[in-house]
Design a protein that fits this description.
It is built from 16 helices and eleven strands. It has about 425 residues and is α/β, with parallel strands linked by helices.
Length: about 425
């Protein structure tokens, strides 16, 4: 598929990791422009572009910025969410490792727009190398006058700090992240108040994902209309990174227009592994509902996937072929969410563990009559009743398993074993 790469245009250019190399490709021109603009105009341009959060929720970015109060004496903060912890999700790592100044520039423009003098980049604890790349890039930016007491000689003060988490999934939830940033156990806060008004250290705070912020310099330089010209419609605009894993010939991170169909994405990835048949796919990370092969023509955008009962989420696409036991796959995901529940609220603490236990006994041939309906009941009482979105995330793969593959679940229970022939996920010697 012919498409001009935007976010990944510097991937493979080692020189782009330095301020000098980044500026050779037009880097920091957008920040220079932002420093000459009234903050309200920056926010309005981002609003007009239709940019929605790329971390999972899909909330309009410019609208979120506009919630930050202007007439306050409190300091304001930007927290960049680089806590990429969900299974199958690895797109932000590429942006950080290959083009760290693109992220720094996006963060700086956001800070100019909302009047924040401090930016924290909260990065997943296991991302040791990406954190080192960011640290080096930030040091370079300070040395070249991009950050510090007078950003590019404008008089605008901005400090940027990389904060490493300790590897807890729940710290990817925005208020759990703030708790962790402030030195406490990473557990979600009750909302409202929302972070835009009461966030880090009790002050107004914008929280945006890495990919979201990387889009901002391009919007300022090329305009909202250019950004809106890419995608499905006015609510689903711009380029999108898809992190593809599973049974495809070439797994990896691909940049394509948002709204590309799943089949088109699959073609870019070289098709199904060894020409096998597609059985199911997860379009938006481990928390998204599984979709059957019959939905392979669906558009990969926020609203189309939501109408189909799933979500774009982080666009971590997990592809599963005919050899995959979906009960086993759902059991692994349920175990992950049960392990990562912070335990603060009862529906999530108890519900996620129940889902994992029921699926485990079905997978191991000890399923009971009625377990299929029990999964539905527990899933529905877990999602929508928990303090944060983790309970919703845990129910996604389980409810979709029953909804789309009920016969496979009930055969496991009736036969007391997996009805599929035993085959390795990948053939021995495969390099995928």
């Amino acid at each position: 598929m012919a498409f001009e790469r935007v976010l990944t245009r510097n991937v493979g250019r080692a020189e782009a990791r330095t301020v000098k190399g980044y500026r050779e490709s037009g880097g920091y021109d957008a920040l220079a422009k932002a420093l000459r603009m009234p903050p309200e105009e920056i926010i309005e341009e981002v609003k007009r572009s239709g940019l929605r959060g790329r971390g999972g929720a899909g909330f309009p970015c410019g609208l979120k910025w506009s919630f930050v109060p202007r007439g306050t004496d409190k300091p304001k903060y930007l927290v960049c969410n680089a806590d990429e912890s969900e299974p199958g999700t690895f797109k932000d790592r590429l942006l950080i490792e290959q083009d760290p100044h693109q992220l720094i520039e996006g963060c700086a423009i956001c800070c100019v727009a909302v009047g924040a003098a401090t930016c924290y980049i909260y990065i997943r604890g296991e991302y040791t190398y990406p954190a080192r790349v960011l640290d080096e890039a930030i040091r370079d930016a300070y040395a070249q006058g991009i950050l510090g007491d007078s950003v590019m000689g404008s008089g605008f003060k901005l400090d940027m700090v990389v904060h490493r988490g300790a590897g807890a999934y729940i710290c990817g939830e925005e208020t759990g992240m703030l708790e962790s940033l402030e030195g406490r156990r990473g557990q979600p806060r009750v909302k409202p108040p929302f972070p835009a008004v009461v966030g880090a250290f009790g002050c107004p705070t914008v929280i945006n994902n890495v990919e979201t912020l990387c889009n901002v310099p391009h919007i300022l330089l090329r305009g909202a209309d250019w950004f809106k010209s890419i995608g499905t419609d006015e609510r689903n605009t711009g380029p999108k990174l898809f992190a593809v894993s599973g049974h495809v010939e070439r797994p990896g991170t691909y940049e394509l227009p948002i709204g590309v169909t799943f089949d088109e994405l699959l073609e870019v990835c070289g098709g199904m592994y060894k020409g096998r048949e597609l059985k199911a796919f997860i379009p938006g990370g481990a928390s998204a509902a599984m979709m059957p092969a019959s939905q392979r023509g669906i558009r990969m955008d926020f609203d189309t996937l939501a109408k189909a009962g799933s979500m774009l989420g982080s666009a971590a696409v997990i592809v599963m072929d005919e050899t995959v036991c979906l009960v086993r796959a759902a059991a692994r995901l349920a175990k992950f969410f049960a392990h990562e529940s912070c335990g603060q609220c009862t529906p999530c603490r108890e519900g996620t563990n129940w889902l994992a236990l029921i699926l485990k006994r079905i997978e191991h041939g000890h399923g009971l009559p009625g377990d299929t309906d029990l999964l539905l009941s527990v899933g529905r009482h877990t999602g929508g009743n928990s303090l944060c979105a983790l309970g919703d995330a845990a129910q996604g793969p389980v409810l979709s398993l029953v909804r789309s593959f009920r016969e496979e679940v009930e055969r496991h229970i009736a036969e007391g074993r997996c009805p599929l022939p035993a085959k390795p996920f990948f053939e021995q010697g495969a390099t995928a």
